[in-house]
TrEMBL record:
Residues 657-670 have a biased composition (Basic and acidic residues). InterPro entries: ARM-like (IPR011989), ARM-type_fold (IPR016024), CIK-Related_Protein (IPR051177), HEAT_type_2 (IPR021133), Kinase-like_dom_sf (IPR011009), Prot_kinase_dom (IPR000719). PANTHER family: N-TERMINAL KINASE-LIKE PROTEIN (PTHR12984:SF3), SCY1-RELATED S/T PROTEIN KINASE-LIKE (PTHR12984). Residues 778-788 have a biased composition (Low complexity). This is Protein kinase domain-containing protein. It comes from Lithocarpus litseifolius. Residues 603-635 have a biased composition (Polar residues).
């Protein structure tokens, strides 16, 4: 116990050699006989302030007062009082003369007079900042007088310092003492070290050393006077020279003048209590004070108040003093977000205000908080981070992205929210260049493989665009294995026309990565098919792409003829308009209905929102009678419905838009997919072929099924009728094949009467996976009555009375 008390009174160290801080350059001003130095910690280099006071001997009155200040500063803690870190005393000898020095180490601060000159605020912004500072000092003085029953006795401009966050703090506790009001007749000084205070800062009773009058007055009387002196020095811009100068009120704001006069009342009992000054003054009611006060008591606010405040904060911050915003509000906001007290809208405000910081300050003050927020489970926080990733993405180092950011961002690829999946996809444009090849090949490409068969058409399209944009960041082996398969097998066969257009554009943008064999055998055959695509924009892009790749082959031929065959890469400048690949095709935010109900865009690069088309059984599409008939020996991938979102983790080696399925042992995605060869039938294709060959009641008279065509009987024969052009994204419950009346159903002419013991045929998409899609047009046994067929896809079966001449003819197609 004795050692503890000795340490409190004498200091917490044994000498200057044991001081774990480095003393730097001094400031030009400090209170009393103290010297204020800049300093740093020897352990971590953090900034501190070091105050030193020297005396000729141990009995020096200045040293005694200094020890009192050290003791008081150690024991009194308040947010608006200077924070104590360390203290020590050192004794040195100059010849035969001993010199004792007291050192106090505190948080890094600067004298208020120097900080005001450095900030250079003027007008309203200066008044708002002064109001905030005075508000803080008034709270510190009120804490000492009303809560602790202490008298500071030395409140002035010199006793106030400013922190790095521009907060004002009270220090210089050398004169501080307890207020003893019990023994009013005592002549013992209430302030033993009052002689250190200049006469111009003392009220009349203190100048006269009328201790009896002081004991009869309230405990705040002396410090209220000192607060009035501080206000005068602050607004006049000059150090107080004489007490009479306090009567000059020309520089005092009018809203503060009544309180200023009450603080300097000649009668101690009538002086304004500092606590009342905080509550009553109109001067402290301004935007800056209200904003900082709200941030400091954020935990006490409800969610509605927080949301309202943070939505207004970005616009409000532009009206506040810029240094206060950057050094005070930004750290407060970052801390609130990190510890969960701030709402998600605070992130947008933080990013806007932090955009005013320098790159170094942003990396030091804001970036660590942002990295920690990626681990948040709050979906609103994650959305905000992804929406604004372009503002801070460049400041993230490759190591931080690969090890700390990407593992959390990648969870958005499989999120149930399409909006979050899309934002995660778009964020890769910023993050992918910073990822390692191991992460790209082992994780990112597998997620993109799943997104390329996502249920949202816009996500499928943007996935293709992203692959084209990040192709330069893939290694050569990955590009060879992935790009062509992703763009041809997936994108060019998508049921969504902008996705097909994006595939063409991606192939053109990455043309430098393909050799002549790949162009001739894998790329051109797939693009040429799209020159007769139902969508005009896809056709236009297909013709441009064909011209580009043919030109590349011609150049190779010319080089071969001249004997120069070196260099397999024949990359040419992209086709006109190819720069649009850098932009996203569309946003799935505009998708209001189901993915299958969305109408295609006019262009893959169009910025117009997708038009939501209501799909029901009564909607129709007109089929042009002059449409060319295209008969393929293999299924038409554009006519197949899009499968649901995949659940496996294999890459592009899996289901290709519900048609082409790779073997399950593929590891990296698009391996070994050769669209030009005749592959082994996939399970889905095998089911269709089995349905075509399955024997029915009249196996010998079954007409040959042709994918993409429909049968119709018109008077004297059966004619092939082409399916409607792909004006709908996916024909799932979307529209009828043709428009006609119920009495003229084209399917009724070849439908036999329904059997008595069978149920109506249901050919909706909601059927199980084992249903045969071709049963709708399969002829039943002649001994029974066949079920009626629906007039269009997704429409229920309807029985119809047999008509004259409506029996099916066993005529091959």
């Amino acid at each position: 116990m004795f050692k503890f008390l000795k340490g409190v009174v004498g200091g917490s160290g044994t000498g200057i050699k044991d001081l774990p801080y480095n003393i730097g350059e001094p400031y030009s001003s400090a209170w009393g006989s103290w010297t204020h130095f800049r300093g740093t910690s020897k352990d971590d280099g953090s900034l501190v302030s070091i105050f030193s006071l020297s005396g000729s001997n141990a009995q020096d009155g200045h040293l005694a007062a200094g020890r009192n200040g050290v003791k008081r500063l150690r024991t009194v803690r308040h947010p608006n009082i200077l924070s104590f870190l360390h203290s020590t005393e050192a004794e040195t000898f100059d010849g035969s003369t001993a010199k004792v020095t007291i050192y106090i180490v505190t948080e890094p601060v600067m004298p208020l007079s120097e900080k005001i000159k450095e900030l250079g605020l003027e007008g309203t912004q200066r008044d708002e900042y002064y109001a905030w500072g005075l508000h803080q000092i008034a709270k510190a003085v009120s804490f000492l007088n009303n809560d602790c029953k202490l008298v500071h006795g030395n409140v002035s401009l010199a006793s106030v310092v400013v922190t790095q966050t521009l907060d004002w703090k009270l220090h210089a506790f050398d004169v501080l003492s307890e207020f003893d009001s019990n023994n009013e007749a005592s002549t013992v000084p209430v302030l033993p070290y009052a002689w250190l205070v200049g006469a111009q800062y003392k009220p009349t009773e203190l100048v006269n050393s009328d201790w009896a009058a002081i004991r009869k007055s309230p405990p705040w009387a002396i410090d209220s006077w000192g607060l009035g002196c501080l206000i005068h020095e602050l607004f006049s811009g000059m150090k107080l020279g004489r007490t009479e100068e306090l009567k000059n009120t020309a520089s005092i704001p009018k809203s503060l003048l009544p309180d200023y006069q009450r603080l300097l009342s000649a009668m101690p009992s009538r002086r304004l209590n500092t606590s009342k000054l905080i509550e009553n003054s109109e001067y402290f009611q301004n935007k800056l004070v209200d904003t900082i006060h709200f941030m400091e008591i954020l935990n006490l606010k409800d969610s509605v108040e927080k949301d309202t405040f943070f939505r207004k904060l970005p616009n409000l911050a532009e009206q506040l003093p810029r240094p206060i915003v950057l050094k005070k509000l930004v750290p407060l906001l970052a801390s609130s977000l990190e510890f969960g007290s701030a709402a998600a809208p605070a992130l947008a405000a933080l990013l806007k205000m932090s955009s005013w910081l320098s790159t170094e300050e942003f990396s030091a003050k804001v970036l660590p908080t942002i990295v920690k927020l990626f681990a948040s489970n709050d979906r609103a926080i994650r959305v905000g981070l992804l929406q604004h990733i372009d503002q801070y993405g460049e400041s993230l180092s490759a190591q931080i992205v690969d090890e700390q950011v990407y593992p959390h961002v990648a969870t958005g690829f499989s999120d149930t929210s399409a909006f979050l999946r899309e934002l995660t996809l778009k964020s890769m444009l910023t993050l992918a260049p910073k990822l390692s090849q191991r992460t790209i090949s082992g994780s990112l490409l597998k997620y993109l493989s799943k997104l390329q068969v996502d249920e949202e058409p816009a996500i499928r399209t943007n996935t293709t665009i992203l692959l084209g944009n990040i192709a330069s960041h893939l290694n050569e082996g990955t590009r060879k294995r992935v790009l062509i398969n992703a763009f041809t097998v997936r994108a060019l066969r998508d049921t969504f026309s902008p996705a097909r257009g994006a595939g063409i554009m991606a192939l053109c943008a990455t043309s430098a990565y393909y050799d002549v064999n790949e162009i001739a055998t894998r790329i051109l055959p797939n693009i040429v098919v799209l020159t007769i695509d139902p969508d005009s924009d896809v056709r236009s892009k297909a013709f441009q792409a064909v011209d580009q790749f043919l030109q590349m082959l011609k150049q190779f031929q010319e080089k071969a003829n001249s004997g120069d065959t070196g260099g397999a890469g024949l990359g040419l400048p992209s086709i006109p308009g190819n720069a649009s690949l850098l932009g996203w095709a569309m946003s799935s935010l505009t998708l209001k209905g189901k993915p299958s109900e969305q109408a295609p865009l006019a262009s893959v690069t169009s910025s117009a929102p997708l038009t939501s088309t209501s799909s029901n059984a009564s909607s129709v599409m007109d089929t042009p009678s002059t449409a060319p008939i295209r008969v393929n020996s293999t299924p038409d991938f554009a006519d197949q419905p899009l499968p649901p979102s995949p659940t496996s983790t294999d890459g592009w080696g899996e289901l290709e838009n519900g048609i082409h399925e790779e073997h399950e042992n593929d590891k990296d995605g698009w391996d070994d997919i050769e669209p030009l060869e005749e592959p082994k039938p996939s399970p889905s294709l095998a089911n269709i072929q089995a349905a075509q060959k399955r024997p029915v009641s009249q196996p010998a008279s079954q007409p040959k099924q042709v994918f993409g065509l429909a049968f119709s009987k018109s008077f004297n024969g059966i004619f092939l009728i082409p399916l409607p052009p792909a004006t709908s994204l996916r024909p799932k419950n979307a529209a009828k094949v043709t428009k006609h009346d119920e009495d003229d159903d084209l399917w009724d002419s070849i439908a036999a009467p329904a059997p008595k013991t069978s149920k109506p045929l249901n050919v909706r998409r909601a059927a199980s996976a084992d249903d045969d899609l071709w049963n709708a047009i399969a002829a039943p046994a002649p001994a029974t009555r066949a079920q009626p067929l629906s007039s269009g896809r997704g429409r229920g079966a309807k029985s119809a009375a047999p008509r004259l001449g409506a029996q099916r003819k066993n005529q091959p197609s």
